[in-house]
C-alpha cells in the first residue's frame, strides 16, 4: 500500500479542478478523506469554481467531514475561504438548511457577516430558502445580522419574497424591524 501511494500525486486535479479530496468530501467518504489527509492531501486547493473541499462537505451537509477537514490534515483549513461567488462554507450550509454544519462552522469561528457576490450573508440565504432552523440559529447567535444590511435587501425582504411564512414570523419574533427601509444610494 505504502509503495503505491509514494509515486502518486495525491493532489492531482481532474477536468473540474477536483482533487481526490474534493471528490471524497462531496460524496461523504469519511475514511477516504481521513486517508487522503494522512497522505498529505491539501484541503487548501480550490476547484474550477473556487470551491474548497470544505465548501463541498458543507453543501452536502456532512458534519463529520466538515469537522475532519477543519481538524486533520497537513494544511490549515481556513473556514472563511471564499469561492468565485465569494461564498464561504457557511453560505453553502445555510442555503441548504444544514443546521448541524452551521453550528460546527460557527463554533470554528466562521465569520457569519461575510457577504457573497450578491451581497448576501448566510442569514440572507437561509431566509431566502426558508431554512427555519438555520435562521433561528444565526439570528440568536448573531443578532447584529438582523440590523447590518446592504442597500439591496434585508433577510425579511428575502423571506417574504419567497413566501416563507414561518421564517418571516421567526425574523419578526427575533426583532427584525418590519418597516425597515432599504435606502437607495444617492445618485452621483
TrEMBL record:
- What SMART domains is this protein classified in? ANK (SM00248)
Keywords from the named record? ANK repeat, Repeat
A GO molecular-function descriptor: ephrin receptor binding
Q: Which InterPro entries match?
A: ANKS1/Caskin, Ankyrin_rpt, Ankyrin_rpt-contain_sf
The GO cellular component terms are: cytosol
Q: Name one GO biological process term.
A: ephrin receptor signaling pathway
**Record keyword Repeat present:** yes
Q: Per its UniProt entry, which superkingdom is the organism in?
A: Eukaryota
ANK repeat ranges are 16-48, 49-81, 85-117, 151-183
Presence of the UniProt keyword Repeat in the record: yes
Q: Please report the name of this protein according to its UniProt entry.
A: Ankyrin repeat and sterile alpha motif domain-containing protein 1B
**Gene source species:** Liparis tanakae
Amino acid at each position: 500500500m505504502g509503495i503505491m501511494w509514494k509515486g502518486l500525486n495525491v493532489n492531482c486535479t481532474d477536468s473540474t479542478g477536483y482533487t481526490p479530496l474534493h471528490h471524497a468530501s462531496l460524496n461523504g467518504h469519511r475514511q477516504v478523506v481521513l486517508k487522503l489527509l494522512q497522505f498529505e492531501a491539501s484541503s487548501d486547493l480550490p476547484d474550477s469554481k473556487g470551491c474548497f473541499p470544505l465548501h463541498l462537505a458543507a453543501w452536502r451537509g456532512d458534519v463529520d467531514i466538515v469537522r475532519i477537514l477543519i481538524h486533520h490534515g497537513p494544511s490549515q483549513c481556513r473556514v472563511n475561504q471564499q469561492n468565485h461567488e465569494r461564498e464561504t462554507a457557511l453560505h453553502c450550509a445555510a442555503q441548504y438548511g444544514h443546521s448541524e454544519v452551521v453550528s460546527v462552522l460557527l463554533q470554528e469561528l466562521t465569520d457569519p457577516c461575510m457577504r457573497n457576490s450578491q451581497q448576501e450573508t448566510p442569514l440572507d440565504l437561509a431566509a431566502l430558502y426558508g431554512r427555519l432552523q438555520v435562521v433561528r440559529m444565526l439570528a440568536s447567535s448573531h443578532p447584529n445580522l438582523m440590523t447590518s444590511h446592504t442597500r439591496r435587501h434585508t433577510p425579511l425582504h428575502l423571506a417574504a419574497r419567497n413566501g416563507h411564512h414561518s421564517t418571516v414570523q421567526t425574523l419578526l419574533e427575533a426583532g427584525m424591524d418590519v418597516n425597515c427601509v432599504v435606502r437607495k444610494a444617492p445618485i452621483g
